[in-house]
Amino acid sequence: MKKFLALILALVMALSLVACGSGAASSAGSAAASGSTSAAAGGKVGIAMPTKSLERWNRDGSYLKEQFESAGYEVELTYSDNDVNQQVNDIENLISDGVSILIVAAIDGESLTNVLDSADEAGIPVISYDRLIRNTKAIDYYVSFDNYTVGVLQGQYVIDTLGLKEGDTSKSYNIEFTAGDPADNNAGFFFNGAYDTLKTFIDSGVLKIVSGQTKFEEVATAAWDTSTAMNRMQNILASYYSDGTQLDIALCSNDSTALGVTQAIESDYAGSNTPIITGQDGDEANLKNIVDGKQSMTVYKAVANEAVVTLALAQAILNGETPDEGLTSQFDCECAYDTTSYDNGTGIIPSYLLTPTVVTADNIQEQLVDTGYYTMGTDGYPVAVG
Ligand code: BGC
Q1: 3-state secondary structure of 385
Q2: 150 CA distance to ligand 1 middle (Å)
Q3: Can you tell me the mean pLDDT for 273-302?
Q4: Ligand 1 atom 9: the closest Cα is on which residue?
Q5: I want to staple 185 with a disulfide (CB 3.0 to 4.6 A). Which of 132, 238, 345, 346 is the partner?
Q6: Distance between CA atoms of residues 78 and 366, nearest Å
Q7: 108 and 202 share a domain?
Q8: What's this model's pTM, rounded to 2 decimal places?
């Protein structure tokens, strides 16, 4: 009898797991699987995304919309063209439209204090989505990926590809870093994760940063802009590599910057080797470059799952619960509850952090296509679903 009850319990738990790990079609179904659809029906959800010009936010917006709508919510989704004032305006409008909860991916993590304080006064809970919003007590929770690990994976990829071993200084390689937008709280985490992972090889002289640009502020890219990253790399190539010095590694924090760096290397690099180029996101143009051997890897973050976790968290908050570690047992994707890593200046913000994965030409099919996040185009290049 005991065994029978245990079996029933296991079955019930398995059935109530919210399905992560697959593309748009099944993630929509997962909302219904969470079981709280009817309790939440009727509320209005405000979603503020930064810009349509960086590919991933289009996917985030559509996955979030799909998740919340299929759980019975009305969704107002805004994109603010990477313009901070417009995002403040958009959020003000969402508040006056009477949303029950706000999900915000900030353009500038430091600029939403006043508008989110008004949300707080209006009793509207706020989930900081993907990027931590700083200097406001209005943030209830943070949902993201493990951002430091994104950088670690990029650094580790370099170590593995070159076969670097601590203590072996027989060979040296030239590396340049390109980081993200200083206004984005994530950018420092990505850079530090990569730099810390490579630090022992930089310190021992095995990895040489020929430009001497070693600090985050020196290698940052305003607005994560592709042309800005391209121009900076063109300048570096002209100043430090035009004499035939070999560039071995371009450590780029994400795909929009990797795209610019790849363009600079294609047009202005004198060397004949193909440098290792890292990225993050799985943007279509970068996956094409990976298939074509121009970019080495990208760190993929399944934003479909970020939407699944965000919906479950929002539902719990709106149901008057105080979500904690327990929420993570609802998901079948890896998602850690973290109460130490993210301090937004007013204290630690409890965070749900998903796990990023490395994608290379060798595992695109398995990681991106077989999982349902992308389809393989007839031209052999992946096309994002969502
Ligand atoms: C996101 C990255 C993205 C970058 C630029 C970051 O906050 O976490 O996935 O590449 O913004 O859009």
Answers
A1: coil
A2: 11
A3: 98
A4: 281
A5: 132
A6: 33
A7: no
A8: 0.92
